[in-house]
Design brief:
4 helices, six-stranded mixed sheet, about 130 residues, about 40% strand, single chain
Length: about 130
Amino acid sequence: MSENNSKAIEAVVASYFANIATMNPTGWVENFAEDAVSYDPVGHPPTKVHEGFREFIGQLQAAFEKLEPTTEHIFVAGNQAAVKWTMEGISKTGKSVTFEGITVFEIDDAGKIQTTRAYWNPTVLLAQLRS
């Protein structure tokens, strides 16, 4: 794999997380291929990104005052990247939350995200929001 391909993958991953931080639905969805699918979290039914993205960002906007993702490690192999991340946030009710996971991104030939598989436990987040 070329270094340019690796940098392009790292750039689309960085844009994915930056648009979550700004809760920018348009910018976030522009990172994805038209037929992209997201398993977030893995084990839940997949979402067709271009059909469900407004709902996803809307849920973030409804629940959080602020979200700050940190990408701790990005491992690029072929057309995929595995990203270890931590998300810190402040809920609309003023609660601080921290949760973490690993998301595997599959990138298509056009440099867009084709598939995401996010490995994290939503019950950890929900417990913090309810405490």
